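Structure in, sequence out. Go:
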């Protein structure tokens, strides 16, 4: 169990205190916030998926059921809160793995019912955006947020905590999936995205050239890039095209990867980042906004964080990046979103159901 934050509880006061639960994928998380300040942010990671090379939904659901009680208990104790002092219960309603979502939703609904407290349903992607409002210097509205994760890639126009609009999104695969699939093709263990970032730090990002898709507007596409990387590796670097020129032997391919791993990772990462930032620059110009944020699991990528800062300096942007602990899935972002929903009295009925694919526009 990993305690992301261990602040001293606030003394006294009649502020709004919210208990939030996040269980959309394979991390069980709980957080407590008071008046928008995070008092605890506890995460239990699931190691069981590593040997399978990806998240196994059924195993994730079982692990959530084992972890949720101790995680919530730890979050309350770390925050110095009793259940009686909680003003509302929040949970991730969508999107995610349906079995995982059900565990968190049913737990939150049961608590809200037994304590007679308001229930607040939170959209996972809205929460990623509002992670930029948790701590440190915060953007002013309106701002643009590039939200990048394993399942989503979006540019969001944020006019207030409650008023957001997706102005660009992937038409096929997400950037995080491109990282993870590339890592798998390179033979890196799960989760592979962070390893691509690690090896890229010592590589030459200009060594190998991968294509940038020509997609109109502010939308993204990463499926063609993944195909290009597949054939590049299959041909041991002799061809970077979408057709199979020839297939090198397994021994030749592996030797090529071993000899050039850092440069390959750096070149792949460089192209993914350029695709993301080129669209973000276009959006900033189109909407005349210089308050720019990133969010989501891929926003923990050190290459992307560095590139955003450098681009911001060139473009005259004010850039904002959440702390690492608030980039990957966590309950603090659910809590901060729920706090703003609480202020708007945006509560949910107990008959609300989680959804694996709820659209947020």
């Amino acid at each position: 169990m990993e305690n992301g934050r261990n602040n001293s509880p606030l003394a006294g006061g009649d502020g709004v205190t919210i208990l939030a639960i996040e269980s959309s994928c394979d991390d069980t998380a709980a957080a407590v916030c008071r008046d928008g300040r995070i008092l605890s942010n506890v995460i239990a990671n699931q190691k069981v998926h590593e040997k399978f090379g990806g998240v196994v939904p059924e195993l994730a659901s079982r692990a959530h059921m084992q972890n949720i009680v101790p995680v919530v208990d730890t979050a309350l104790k770390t925050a110095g809160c009793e259940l009686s002092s909680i003003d509302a219960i929040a949970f991730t309603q969508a999107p995610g793995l349906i079995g995982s979502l059900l565990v968190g939703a049913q737990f939150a609904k049961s608590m809200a019912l037994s304590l007679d407290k308001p229930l607040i349903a939170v959209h996972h992607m809205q929460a990623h955006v509002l992670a930029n409002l948790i701590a440190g210097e915060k953007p002013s509205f309106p701002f643009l947020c590039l939200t990048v994760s394993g399942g989503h890639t979006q540019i969001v126009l944020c006019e207030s905590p409650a008023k957001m609009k997706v102005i660009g999104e992937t038409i096929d695969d997400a950037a995080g999936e491109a990282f993870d699939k590339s890592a798998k093709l390179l033979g890196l263990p799960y989760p592979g995205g962070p390893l691509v970032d690690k090896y890229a730090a010592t590589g030459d990002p200009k060594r190998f050239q991968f294509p940038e898709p020509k997609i109109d507007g502010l939308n993204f596409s990463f499926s063609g890039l993944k195909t290009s990387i597949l054939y590049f590796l299959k041909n041991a670097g002799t061809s970077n095209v979408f057709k199979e020129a020839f297939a090198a032997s397994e021994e030749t391919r592996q030797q090529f990867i071993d000899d050039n791993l850092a440069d390959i990772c750096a070149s792949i990462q460089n192209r993914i980042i350029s695709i993301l930032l080129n669209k973000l620059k276009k959006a900033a110009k189109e909407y005349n906004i210089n308050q720019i944020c990133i969010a989501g699991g891929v926003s923990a990528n050190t290459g992307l964080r560095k590139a955003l800062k450098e681009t911001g300096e060139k473009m005259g942007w004010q850039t904002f990046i959440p702390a690492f602990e608030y980039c990957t899935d966590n309950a603090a972002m659910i809590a901060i979103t729920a706090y703003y929903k609480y202020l708007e009295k945006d509560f949910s009925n107990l008959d609300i159901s989680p959804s694996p694919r709820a659209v947020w526009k």
